[in-house]
Write a structure and sequence with these properties.
The protein is an alpha+beta fold. The protein is about 25% helix and about 35% strand. The strands form two sheets. A twelve-stranded mixed beta sheet has the order 7-8-9-10-11-1-2-3-4-5-6-12. A two-stranded antiparallel ribbon has the order 13-14. It starts with a helix and ends in an 11-residue tail after the last helix.
Length: about 280
């Protein structure tokens, strides 16, 4: 009997602590619009808290959590917000939604106060045993088709998408370059996704217009990470860099090679989910 009471207490304690809901989405996307057959896949997590939700890469979230614990244990400060990609914060009570966007190694907290103008359609189907209804919306210079369910009473979904009568189970753009499909859900007692910033890598707070201006400046004149890091931290002077064999690397040659690589990266990753932000 004592064992039974112990088990019941343990189960009840877990139930009381597991106040947050987590949904895992399979994200398929085409990074290069000139190579539409090249599709990448990644699992993303949406965690719903009392007053907001957070959306980010499942793999990055686990890696960041491990790195943060190691950083705290060792007293290091080398854990950077630049490790997080596709991070979206969605507030339920005010217009303080933001995403973390990156220009090279610079991170930007981009605030977005726009509202999604959903159009609900009288079309229904079942997806993974959920009763779903169809809805469409225009966002980021793309047209999207979503399927939401009131079986899961959360007005949220992957990425920036939210404010439908229920949870979004699936959504994709009409060109099928970006799609999200719900694959799992469970309760969790995880806390907010905390990030310990490295003092030499700043995060700038901007609106969408300001970020777009910065992005176009970088696209016209891309630079490599080393050069960008020194511009962010003018107090640091790069004297020399050595390769794995101990040979001194020519800094001008390094800078040239990194700029060429940055140009290639821009060309290879041109099919952003939010085309309007990166126009």
């Amino acid at each position: 009997m004592n064992k039974l009471h112990l088990i019941l207490f343990f189960v009840l304690n877990i139930s009381l602590n597991a106040q947050n809901h987590r949904f895992i989405y399979e994200y398929k996307y085409v990074p290069d619009s000139t190579k539409v057959d090249s599709v990448l896949t990644e699992n993303m997590r949406l965690t719903i808290f009392k007053d907001h939700s957070e959306f980010l890469s499942e793999m990055k979230a686990k890696s960041d959590s491990s790195n943060l614990k190691s950083s705290e244990n060792n007293g290091d400060a080398n854990f950077s917000p630049g490790n997080i990609r596709n991070f979206i914060w969605k507030s339920y009570h005010d217009a303080k939604d933001y995403s973390l966007e990156y220009i090279g190694m610079e991170s930007y907290k981009v605030y977005d106060e726009r509202k999604l103008n959903w159009k609900l359609l009288n079309e229904n189907k079942k997806i993974q045993n959920y009763n779903c209804q169809k809805a469409t919306v225009k966002f980021g210079n793309r047209e999207w088709t979503a399927w939401f369910t009131t079986d899961l009473p959360f007005q949220d979904g992957p990425n920036i998408f939210k404010n439908l009568p229920g949870l979004i189970v699936a959504i994709e753009d009409t060109k099928k370059h970006h799609s999200f499909q719900l694959v799992a859900n469970y309760e969790t007692n995880d806390n907010l996704h905390k990030v310990k910033s490295f003092s030499l890598l700043k995060t700038y707070e901007v609106n969408r217009k300001q970020f777009n201006k910065k992005w176009n400046e970088y696209r016209r004149n891309p630079i490599g990470n080393n050069e960008q890091f020194l511009l962010m931290n003018p107090q640091i002077k790069m004297i020399s860099i050595q390769d794995e064999k101990g040979n001194t690397i020519n800094l001008e040659e390094l800078r040239k090679n990194e700029r060429n690589q940055a140009k290639k990266n821009i060309l290879r990753n041109n099919n952003f989910l939010d085309l309007e932000l990166y126009r």
